[in-house]
Amino acid sequence: MRRSIDTLLVCGLLVLLGLPAAAQSPPNPAMSAPDQVAWQLFIQANTRAGGSNSTFETWASDTDLFQPNPQFPAAATPPSLRPPILPQVAREGVQQSGGLLPALPPGAAQGQMEETRHNKPTFDFIVQNNLYKRSGVKAAFGKQLSFPVDSIEVKGNWMPVSDIPQFTNNKVTVAQVPQLYHVNSAAGVQYALVSMHVISKQVPNWTWATFEHRFNPGRCDIIGCRDNFGAQTAFVPSNRIAGQGYPDCVKTAALTAMLSSADIDPVYNNYCLKGSQADFVDNVGLDIRVGNSVTEDGFVATSSCITCHGRAAFKADGTPASQAGFLSFGPNGPVAPLGPLLPEWYWKFSGQPPIFEGKPGLTRIATAADFVWSIPFCAYDDTQTPVQPTPCSGK
Q1: pTM of this prediction?
Q2: How far apart are the first and last CA of the chain?
Q3: C-alpha–C-alpha distance, residues 259 and 39, integer Å
Q4: CA quadruple 105, 108, 87, 181: dihedral, nearest 10
Q5: What is the pLDDT of residues 103-123, one digit of tens each?
Q6: How many Å apart are CA 41 and CA 129, to the nearest integer?
Q7: Which of these, 216, 237, 234, lies nearest to 36 by C-alpha position?
Q8: What is the C-alpha to C-alpha distance for residues 197 and 293, in angstroms, rounded to an integer?
């Protein structure tokens, strides 16, 4: 039959034949090209900020933010270092549950220290919503928190320069450290940056990426290293024997061009993308694993950035909700949560799915902190007299 306008019914949609297809908006690169976005964020965070400082060192540390009078820094500040918080949380959680205290991961014994930094939009959201203090966190119970899209956070892991030779199996001397690592000083000690997490709110569940120095001995251990944008070898499998080191992550022409055009210290060419993450599971339902050999030392095999931070939540009293169950311990060591978030982390309910908010018998037991652990962990306690300091203060 002849038609004045040819049409075709496809999957319930009426398509006009012979007409040009409507222009499609470009896909969200944070989802479709996460490794490229990871490098863009890494460069943004590490652009020069005067002297030997990088931009992330001009952002607010947990110490700047979680105090009675939060102040965003007017200039770069020294690293605000504390012992790694994950071993501490693991030990407290096991102690609360009556289990045996786990040994500290090897990295903690090697003088490793860490800090978390928040850019201005992140800082402003926390301050404006009073989430830097316990009373404000309590008042936010039951509310939906959502950071602005330009929020960025970084977690840096540092090691004393004097420890780098032993840490790298003597592949780097103390004299070589300033030429190979980003270095800064805190409390009279020189530290080298050995790894960095970078997250951004470009998508509702944030973007997740972790970077390691190329001389980190366990860089690709257990789960391998994946970089489909910046590394000429997109996947590096794990060695059979841990802690032996890996070849340099030789950069692609695209990343080399990005680094060359950026105002960034050349030492950052020595850092490698370990992996990025944009979802809980892959397209066949397998849990996605991303873990840093320094930050998640001891449980890389079960590490998922998005799942871990998805458990960031607080109870009605403003204290962390997931602390006791953050890590479990079996015969093979620590086990972290993997895969999608579970309703029972936030709700108490009876019966079987489907469950949804408003259904009878559904009681809120925790409020999500929009993937930001610093809120429940670091808010200083202003509900007691005298006021209790934040547990996340720099050492």
Answers
A1: 0.88
A2: 81
A3: 9
A4: -110
A5: 444 444 467 899 999 999 999
A6: 26
A7: 234
A8: 12
